Amino acid sequence: MNSITIILTGATGMVGEGVLLECLQNENVASVLMMNRRHFDLTHPKLKELLVSDFMKLEQYANDLKGYDACFYCAGISSIGMKEDEYTRITYDTTLHVANVLLQHNPNMTFNFVSGASTDSTEKGRMMWARVKGKTENDLMKLSFKGVYNFRPGFMMPFKEQRNVKTFFKFFGFWFPHVFPKSTLTLEEVGRAMIHTSTKGTAKHVLEVKDIKHLAK
């Protein structure tokens, strides 16, 4: 099995950092380019960093984006307190722009998008964030990547050595597997499943918790 090269966003957040740590320890990953808005202080032989202050101007960094097998798009933001147009700009507009720029330079790339449980594929539901995530999923799947996979994880348990862990998880995360066993998985599983979309592939393109667990095996 050939090792893959990955572009990863969101390393300064909990999901992105967890997926990154799995990539760095996984023998099927040759290298990772973490694309960040701000510096993330982590060094590893497999790891490079590209600082991009505005993802909507990503085309300016074209020479740094060529020759990659996969993008793990883990960047995101909570919708709490946000208006729909602002949340759409960050969640939909930015993601689609990044995807289109990467596609120009990596036509055989696999693109993985971290969405969320209860995302609304109809784009018509009452929950604003779920509609926007649903539209993002739907329009990503229209692009001509080698494969597009939308991850809908539930409660995610971080690596012990992670730095970017929300306070809520530090105090209550231990109980998730016991209280919500069918909705809980580890970030190690999320990262491994993402790697497997490129190395093994899967027929499903919208992956719920049970699908992520199965693909991670």
Description:
- By secondary structure, the protein is of the alpha/beta class.
- The chain has 7 helices and 9 strands; from the N terminus they run E-H-E-E-E-H-E-H-E-E-H-H-E-H-E-H.
- A 7-stranded parallel β-sheet has the order 3-2-1-4-5-6-9, with helices on both faces. Strands 7-8 form a two-stranded parallel sheet.
- Helix 3 links the parallel strand 5 and strand 6 (147-151).
- The two termini are 16 Å apart.
- The mean pLDDT is 93.
Which key features would you list for this structure?
single chain; 217 residues; alpha/beta; seven-stranded parallel sheet; two-stranded parallel sheet; 7 helices; 9 strands; globular
How would the blueprint of this fold be written?
Elements: E1 4-9, H1 14-25, E2 29-36, E3 47-51, E4 70-73, H2 84-105, E5 110-114, H3 128-140, E6 147-151, E7 155-157, H4 167-172, H5 176-179, E8 184-186, H6 187-199, E9 206-207, H7 209-216
Parallel strand pairs: 1-2, 1-4, 2-3, 4-5, 5-6, 6-9, 7-8
Helix pairs in contact: 1-6, 2-3, 6-7
Summarize the structure.
By secondary structure, the chain is of the alpha/beta class. The chain has helices at 14-25, 84-105, 128-140, 167-172, 176-179, 187-199, 209-216; strands at residues 4-9, 29-36, 47-51, 70-73, 110-114, 147-151, 155-157, 184-186, 206-207. The protein contains seven helices and nine strands.
